[in-house]
Amino acid sequence: MKVGLLSDVHANLPALEAVLEDMPAVDDIVCAGDVVGYNPWPAACLERVREVAAATVRGNHDRTVETPERYRANRMAEAGLEHAKRELSAEGLGWLRELPRATRFADGRYHLVHSHPAPEREDAYVYPEEFPALDRHLDTLAEEEATDLDGLVLGHTHVQGARSVDDRLVVNPGSVGQPRDGDPDAAYAVLDADAGEVDLRRVAYDVDRVAAAVEREGLPERTANRLYRGE
């Protein structure tokens, strides 16, 4: 079973379009959250993710889109959420509100969550070099579901990576819409759920189109500038 892995789209429609065009044939697509935030196209990205993803979990921006003032200390994040709140329909806001914190896919063998798998650490960043420290949490997830667990997919850091942890695959497909690993190309991954293997992929997109829309919508200039540098 081949599964396309998306995360951290962040309302970047040109990046999402490029990823979906570049993606090889897959059986399913799943999204590890943060569909909205930062960039100019929250409604269009939300609808596209709803169309293509068999499962989507709630990211921190998805969770706070109706309360952007929570990000007052980060003007880029606050402005992106204010824009999303204005642009999204009541139905779209309701869809985000009802997203689960976590779910399973590939016949329940893989766990999908936005950030740290432990609920009490919901917004904690877990970078690829820290994946081995998730070993006990992977055991807990398997025990909670009383089923085999072949892997974990998460996002949040916007840094692409994969590791084998106690024979389980841990993957961050990277950010579609705002990479932060020094590579400006949109990031995603394709998982072979049966083989336990993942292909980490990048694709270029029209950053100039995003920058023009950022200016047009009155979003912070750095929202666009960082995209050119993948930061």
UniProtKB/TrEMBL annotation:
Coiled coil: none annotated. Transmembrane segments: none annotated. It holds the Pfam family Metallophos_2. SUPFAM superfamilies: Metallo-dependent phosphatases (SSF56300). It comes from the Archaea. Residues 1-195 form the Calcineurin-like phosphoesterase domain. PANTHER family: BLL5683 PROTEIN, METALLOPHOSPHOESTERASE. This is Metallophosphoesterase family protein.
